[in-house]
Amino acid sequence: MKRYIILGGGIAALSAAKAIRKNDPSGLIVLLTNEDALPYNRPALTKQLLGDLSAADIAVERAAWYDAPGRDIIVLTGRTVSAIDTKEKTVSLADGLVFPYDRLVYALGARCFVPPFAGSDRENVIAVRTVEDAARVRRLAKGAKDAVVIGGGVLGLEAAWSLRQGGLNVTVIEFEKQIMARQIDEEAAAHLISAMDKHGVALLTQASAAAYDGKVLTLADGRTLPADLVIVSAGVRANAEIAAAAGIKVDRKILVDQRMQTSAPDVYAAGDCAVCGVSYALWAEAGEMGKVAGTNAAGGHAEYKAGPRPLIFHGFDTELFAIGDVGRDPAKTYEVGAMPGARYYSVGDKVVGAILTGDTSLALEAKKLVLENA
Ligand SMILES: Cc1cc2nc3c(=O)[nH]c(=O)nc-3n(C[C@H](O)[C@H](O)[C@H](O)COP(=O)(O)OP(=O)(O)OC[C@H]3O[C@@H](n4cnc5c(N)ncnc54)[C@H](O)[C@@H]3O)c2cc1C
Predict the structure, then answer these.
(1) d(Cα 224, Cα 310) in Å, to the nearest integer?
(2) Ligand 1 centroid to 109 CA: how many Å?
(3) Which of 140, 174, 181, 366 has a Cα at 20 to 30 A from 78?
(4) Which of 183, 214, 232 is the last residue of a domain?
């Protein structure tokens, strides 16, 4: 009987476990996660930030699912992995336990990056990655009046919208000249800003935090913003250090081939901690990588194909969908096919990107069109 150890308790880990069981009905499958919860739907956290969601409410699979006859997937929660030894083929936990493995899937995900401004370690500065983080926001939002969101990406704007709906005065600050500068065009950014404006949410671009005293956030240019709460949404860093310490090849993320194999024999990696070509750190991508890793770990054959992934935003009573290259490369000449609420970007005779704003009902068609040319 093969022993499969899966590090992590996110969607990449769960998808790997499912794929292993599909390909190996009798192997021992153990997931090790430092969270106190079964794998849950992480994207839901910022969509209903003040929504009092528990991990069980948004669990990907219910507890009974793991124990069902023929499934037998063991999830050990509250366990911190501290090291792996690829020669001895063991995993060590912080509590001293050691697990031998035949195949290892490394799916430790990513953590939020918090810019190192003075006061960034205060309790009311929160980067949301886990159900505990979201619970802390809910607790601190009670009685709070003003909030600042650092980062004008999708997750930052989702958080801003949730806080605004909860009655807080919200300002979003964005380091770049334009929000989501690499993913959307100026018109789409203007559409979002106007929607934010209608709901009284201010946006300051080319702004960064310099210091926070628990009540007032001071920006690098000296401006000040009242803030009972500061939400940070400034990107993520891969949890790849344990792999690097074990001698596995890492370049910020763990380097994997199309089969999700790392540089170490019998060690696969998947999700936000791994990269094969391009990586967007998205839910569907992590799930797919996990599936490929699990299939191959269990002796099957699967290959991962990286490709354009859609950006989807719902909030401020509007919608946004963007996919592919939407005119962001100054070295290219684009043709733009524009109609109300939709723009298609072409290079030569190929549609390379699309943006829909307001009404995104044509998203599937737009995605298909762009993927056909990818
Ligand atoms: C608030 C939020 C909203 C998002 N919204 C969207 C969205 O709308 N659409 C979208 O596509 N993507 C979204 N994402 C991104 C998406 O959730 C991630 O890409 C996806 O969850 C990555 O899955 P993963 O399994 O690779 O990593 P993770 O979900 O990060 O799972 C890794 C797991 O490993 C655990 N772990 C880490 N280190 C250790 C250790 N040393 N020992 C034991 N366990 C450890 C972690 O606690 C975690 O449980 C969102 C992310 C966040 C945080």
Answers:
(1) 35
(2) 5
(3) 140
(4) 232
